[in-house]
Amino acid sequence: AQRVTQPEKLLSVFKGAPVELKCNYSYSGSPELFWYVQYSRQRLQLLLRHISRESIKGFTADLNKGETSFHLKKPFAQEEDSAMYYCALGPYGNKLVFGAGTILRVKS
Amino acid sequence: DTGVSQDPRHKITKRGQNVTFRCDPISEHNRLYWYRQTLGQGPEFLTYFQNEAQLEKSRLLSDRFSAERPKGSFSTLEIQRTEQGDSAMYLCASSSLNRGGMSRGEQFFGPGTRLTVL
């Protein structure tokens, strides 16, 4: 079965502190993983995906198949990073299986 | 705005009534998805279309739910005999396929329709 686990409902950090949002997945095949973000009063949008291996808004995420993890990291949090973050598993571009989400609050 | 649009944005109905939601995807996108999101949870997959063909339905989609995409453009999601447990945000998303017919992976989401069943 496909499953995504985000263990933290809320992560609160101070501005300038490092951020790590955790994501673990369960999937027997070759996974395709994404991070989606939803800012206040905006729609859900793609932040990054593991295939692209890019850094978006200072965020990076590395797929670790051994640990079945896809943690989202940023070295220095900014107030505008405050949002809801969802990790999603989408084998071969079909349906997305989402985690429950983590609220990131960056305090000044 | 050329993004995914959904109508209505909010719907309040009484238990037992039928409701229908509409989704207009990004115009060149072949694939259209419906998800449901309840409080404190991530979106849960309901069904998806490739052009007008409905290719997969979740077990969450009971017999009271039906979705169509008759001309491969907009889609409708109908819920018959609504129940209080149907109260949720209903999200639509679309994505494109490349020339080789492979999905490009990214799904573009609409603003959602919030359904409240009294």
Greatest interface by residues involved = A-B, 23 and 28 residues
| Oligomer kind | heterodimer
Enumerate how many helices of chain A there are, as a single number. 0
The H/E string of chain B reads EEEEEEEEEEE
Q: Could you describe the largest sheet of chain A, including whether it forms a barrel?
A: 6 strands, mixed
Order of helices and strands of chain A: EEEEEEEEEEE
Q: Could you tell me the radius of gyration of chain A in angstroms?
A: 13 Å
Termini separation of chain A = 41 Å
Shape field of chain B = globular
Q: Indicate the structural class of chain B.
A: mainly beta
Highlighted features:
heterodimer; A: 108 residues; mainly beta; 6-stranded mixed beta sheet; 3-stranded antiparallel beta sheet; 42% strand; B: 118 residues; 7-stranded mixed beta sheet; 4-stranded antiparallel beta sheet; 0% helix
Write structural notes for this entry.
The complex is a heterodimer of chains A (108) and B (118). Chain A is mainly β and 108 residues long. Chain A is 0% helix and 42% strand. The model of chain A has no long low-confidence stretch (mean pLDDT 93). In chain B, 0% of the residues lie in helices and 47% in strands. In chain B, the strands form 2 sheets. In chain B, strands 2, 4, 5, 6, 9, 10 and 11 form a 7-stranded mixed β-sheet that branches. A 4-stranded antiparallel β-sheet of chain B has the order 1-3-8-7, with no helix packed on it. In chain B, a hairpin with a 2-residue loop joins strand 5 and strand 6. Chain A binds chain B through residues 4, 9, 32, 34, 43-46, 49, 51, 86, 88, 90, 92-101, and chain B through 3-4, 31, 33, 35, 40-45, 48, 56, 58, 91, 93, 95, 102-112.
